[in-house]
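Observation: inputs received (chain + arginine).
Thought: call the complex predictor directly.
Action: predict_structure
Action Input:
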Amino acid sequence: MRKLFISLLFAVLPLAMMADEGMWIPMLLQKNEADMQKAGMRITAKDIYDINHACLKDAVILFNQGCTGEFVSDQGLFLTNHHCGYYYITSNSTVEHDYLTHGFWAMSREQEIPCRGLTATRLVRMEDVTAQVLEGVTDQMSEKDRAAIISKNIERISAKAVEGSHYKAVIKPFYYGNQYFMYINEVFTDVRLVGAPPSNIGKFGGDTDNWIWPRHTGDFSMFRVYCSPDGKPAAFSSDNVPYKPLKHLTVSLKGLNEDDFTFVFGYPGSTQRYVTSDAMRISAIEVNPIRIALRDIRLKYYKDAMEQSPAQRLKYASKVASIANGWKKWQGETLGIERLQGVAKKEAYERQFQRWANDKPEYRDVLPRLHQAYATLHPITIERTYFDEAVRSSDLMQRAGLMYTLLYGATSDSAKHAWAGNFAKQQDKYFSDFDKHGPIDKGIFVDTYILMWKAGYAPYLGKEESAVRKKLVTAFDKSILTNKDRLVKLLSDYTPKQGKKLENDPAVALFSEAYSYVYHKDNKLQIHDSIAYHVVPALMRTYVKGIMEKDPDVNYFPDANLTLRVAYGAVKGFKPKDATYYVPYSTLAGIMEKENPDIYDYVVEPRLKELYRTKDYGRYADRNGDMPVCFLTTCHTTGGNSGSPVLNADGQLVGVNFDRCWEGTMSDLLFDPNYCRNICLDIRYCLFIIDKFAGARHLVDEMTIVQ
Ligand code: ARG
Ligand code: GLU
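Observation:
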């Protein structure tokens, strides 16, 4: 009975769009306008995106190639996340001026710090160029010919579009190549650091709280875009002037209540919404647990070390941060897909699709062929997961991999000599982090390798566990890669003769063996690449076209691809587990609850405590006189949305997006309005920190604020 009910439910919910699901193309937002207005929006789609008038899109920028930012003044001042600005905050810090620890606030324009290499990209306009991109493409041609024509067309169209201007054009495929859009961008290259809170505000909760609600992270930093005196992008120069954006956001101090309409406007990086049941099963149900188990090992070693001393803590903090970020996200993703029975839902939809496709020659074979393609890819994918998370992630094997490239890479002897000499010079730094005699690096290398071997993916190591272990330990102990003096000597004057020595090094030899096994045995590399890069993309193009043709009334959004999108929903709490409800707001009181001077992630600045004690919140307090810190919404976001403006029904800035709750990270594959929440910094806390905490009132005064 229960089973019947479930299958009926699947039958009526086939790949249906869920409430609040979707990352919409700003140019096509008209299609969502009525729905957005019904949900409470008081502005129009044209206020968000319009090529004839300044609009909200002119206030949103792509920060480098992975975060979002938004202008908050007519002087080029913009906000993004602390974790987005992190590199520029740390790389400009010295022991005397430790901006990461103590924060940084430019009290005048002269004090702003130029950030080499940092770009801020504004979208000028976008255009559907599908017809031009596909010109000359026929259904009969091979994928290879098709790709060649498309790339030629793209080159031609984009060059022509920006001819004689300072703009840059980017053309990207949508719906797996069923549609193409061109983005005309203005790329600013003089971007300066203006402000960042101390890390115990900007990264409060650290990796302990990462992906977690309740959250209390003041995850923001501020930068300013400069341009030439005539308003165009220019390389850093003291003659440059603050850029005057066509539009900057109005900041609202009114805050939002639960159920209020809100939207996020930014650059989501990547989602996999249309993949088949096989792809979902492989990635969420099979690959994730393998990655998690292998990372458990690495994290355990680093965390044990970090507990031993503050110096060790510092040494491994950033390694742990990057390992733990994906580790936690994948746990939520797998859990979410299982909870939703995502694979079964996909299968039910595929049965329905197949019934529809049976009498349509174009679509009849697409699912069976995708199924077949994934059957071939499956074992290769699993094997590569082990290789990436075990072999490629131990320091020893990473370096052995570099030596492998040095030995067998196709460059001249003189280029090899130069590269090796250069590499030799970096060894002081590397070895200061390398734990030759202690448990960490050896333990990670041996334990992850053993796990891979036990799963059957390293048969070349032998059959007997004790012998395998011995082989690994010997490789570590005897390798020149774990001996700084010998290594530097060998590389400083690298010749083919030295190369022979390197070839016989036990760690390098082990890497070669592993690499040939995973990539070259049984022609696996060719098989993988032809299926993953040609067969599957072509079939997915057809499948997604079929999905849209089958239900033409559904407004399907295209997967995220680091182009500007609008996601909308409401402020909402959720029920993560039985008998627990998460209220969608956190306040400064929660920071004080978490405070613990002995735990690095939960140290609270004395000044912040003082402001809390005196309740000196000024105009930034909420209705109850509390200081709001973060809030949750149902907007569909992903990596890349970090730093995105969170706006209210009037298009005013109320928050800055910075994370999701881990219980809902399956939203990259399957969205569930009951669990998927993004985490936003409340703009009132941000301004309170700038004004009351840091005393940088002049920055707040630049903004346009409504009370
Ligand atoms: N989870 C967020 C993201 O995916 C934030 C990561 C940075 N913060 C941190 N505590 N490690 O990027
Ligand atoms: N922190 C993520 C980022 O850097 C956003 C969180 C997410 O994946 O949604 O883009």
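Thought: report the result.
Final Answer: Residues 83, 203, 206-207, 210-211, 321, 325, 639, 642, 659 surround arginine (ligand 1) (CB under 6 Å). The chain has 27 helices and 22 strands.
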